[in-house]
Amino acid sequence: MPTTAPAFADATASDSALRRFLHGLPGVDAVGLEARAASLGTRSIKTTAKAYAIDLAISMIDLTTLEGADTPGKVRALAAKAVHPDPTDRTTPRTAAVCVYPDMAATAVAALAGSGVKVASVATAFPAGRAALDVKLADVRDAVAAGADEIDMVIDRGAFLSGRYLKVYEEILAVKAECGSARLKVIFETGELSTYDNIRRASWLGMLAGADFIKTSTGKVGTNATPANTLLMLEAVRDFREQTGVQIGVKPAGGIRTSKDAVKFLVLVNETAGEDWLDNHWFRFGASSLLNDLLMQRQKLSTGRYSGPDYVTVD
């Protein structure tokens, strides 16, 4: 089965070839990576630039509800918020997508019809990924049949951590084939990969297998998106495009809750991958609570007053 990167066909020809390629990637200087991420996080963004960054961040949010207690009513309410995040100000950008479980995808599709807001669905036995491949593929087929525009899959971290890279690669290929026209986001669960070297390897593995996006986390473990792991993934997509001409998106997810945090991540994008990624087709925030803080900061910039959390909906 072909990949999006024919230049690396030899690297994926066998388990041993893939291992050699992934372990041949340059090792990550953890101290240098964290220092650069921290340094970029100190950049000061003021006035007009801050207003632009807040609107850009809103437009990049995958507004997410992934709870066992999700109901059709909650999904419809979330969809309404995605289309009009601030009902008192129709100049507020729409979010990029609403992200739900597969059984809620049809509800989201109906609620968002004609809005331009995408429907993303997690799949492949999210969040643990502990299921047989045929079960995972059925999960994807259900979401695509319901009308999902995007599929967020989780990799088999057990297979990856035990060095069975070809199994992970072939599973991503199989899921990609089931996606049809839907874009595929591949979630690594960086908090479980333990090392930056593993995050770099997972990034390249996902891109070689045809991911449209690489995504940090499910939001369901203790360590999710961080500036350092996102910086590392941004470096990977930048280098991949330089070598293949193929552009891949990045989605940090989990733990990004404030406007200040979001702006730091946008600085990382601009300074690492470049302006081509400053668009919701190529960069997303996986978040549920971030939008409210962005809305409060946006109101403060426009009115000079801080309205407080009582003036935004609680999801």
Give a structural overview.
The protein is an alpha/beta fold. Helix content is 47%, strand content 10%. The chain has 13 helices and eight strands. It has helices at residues 15-23, 30-40, 47-59, 72-83, 105-112, 133-145, 157-161, 165-179, 190-193, 196-208, 227-244, 259-272, 290-303, and strands spanning 61-64, 97-100, 118-123, 150-154, 183-187, 213-215, 249-251, 285-287. Strands 7-6-5-4-3-2-1-8 form an eight-stranded parallel β-sheet. It is globular and about 60 Å long.
List the keywords.
47% helix; 10% strand; 315 residues; alpha/beta
End-to-end separation: 42 Å
Number of helices in the DSSP assignment: 13
Number of DSSP strand runs: 8
Characterize the main sheet: 8 strands, parallel
Over the alpha carbons, how many angstroms does the gyration radius reach?
19 Å
Instruction: Give me the side-by-side strand order of the main sheet.
Output: 7-6-5-4-3-2-1-8
Low-confidence stretches: none
SSE series? HHHEHEHEHEHHEHHEHEHEH
Structural class by SSE content: alpha/beta
Overall pLDDT score = 93
Strand content: 5-15%
Silhouette: globular
Helical fraction equals 40-55%
